[in-house]
Design brief:
The chain is mainly α. The protein has 2 domains: 88 residues, Helix-hairpin-Helix base-excision DNA repair enzymes (C-terminal) (Endonuclease Iii, domain 2, Orthogonal Bundle), CATH 1.10.1670.10; 100 residues, Hypothetical protein, domain 2 (Endonuclease III, domain 1, Orthogonal Bundle). It has 11 helices and no strands. It is elongated and about 60 Å long. The termini are far apart. The N terminus is likely disordered.
Amino acid sequence: MGRVPRVTKKPARPAASRKRSATSARPKRPTKAELPAHARVILRGLKKDYPVAICELTHDSPFQLLAATILSAQCTDARVNMTTPALFAAYPTAEALAVADISHVEQLVKSTGFYASKAKNLIGMANAVMTRFGGDVPTAIEDLVTLPGVGRKTANVVRSVVFNLPGLPVDTHVLRLSKRLGLTRNDDPVKVEHELNALLPPAEWGEFSLRLILHGRRVCDARKPLCGECRLAAVCPSRQ
C-alpha cells in the first residue's frame, strides 16, 4: 500500500448557518419510519459544513494509524499527535516495535495517560501483526479486534481511513451527537454502530463518523453546544 498522507491541518469551524429564531419550536424526535430520511438530512448538512472529512491523527501508514488510535483512548488527538513523532522515530514499523523495550515505550507514551497498559498493548499489537499477519495490518474487522488494545472503534478507524473500507467508528462524539440528533436512544457504542449502519450506505459510514466528530469538537460541545451556529438545529430534537 502506498504512503498515506500526513494529516496536520485542522478544518476551521464551519461558517455559521442562519441564526434560528429564538421562538421556533424544537423539532420532534423522528419516528422509526422517519429515521432514514432524517439521517439523510443530517448527512447532507454535515457534508456542507465539512466537505473534506479528515482523521486528525497524524500517520504515515496503516501501522502508525493503528498505534495512534490505540493511544487516543482517553486522550485527545492533539496530545497523541504531540507524542507519536518520537514514538515513530524510534519504532517506525511493527517489526521495530515488536522488539521494543517496554520501559522505553512507556516513557515515550506517558503523556497520553494509562501509559503502562498502552505500551503493553502497542508491543503486543506489533508482535501479533508480525507473527500472525506477516507484518501487514489486517483489513478484516474480525482480525483487527483480535489485536491487543483494538476494539471495534479502533478497527473501524483503520478500516475506513487507510483501507477505504466500510467502517463506522463510534467514539464519545459520535455517541453523543447520534443521541442528540435523534438517531438513537442507545448508550452501547456497538448497538449505535449497527443502528447507524442500517440508516446509511456503507460507502458513507467512515466519513459520516469523521464529520460527526468534527461537528462535536467545533459546534456540538458536550456542555455548551453552539445551537445558534448549527446547521442541523432545524432538525435537532435536543437543540437549546
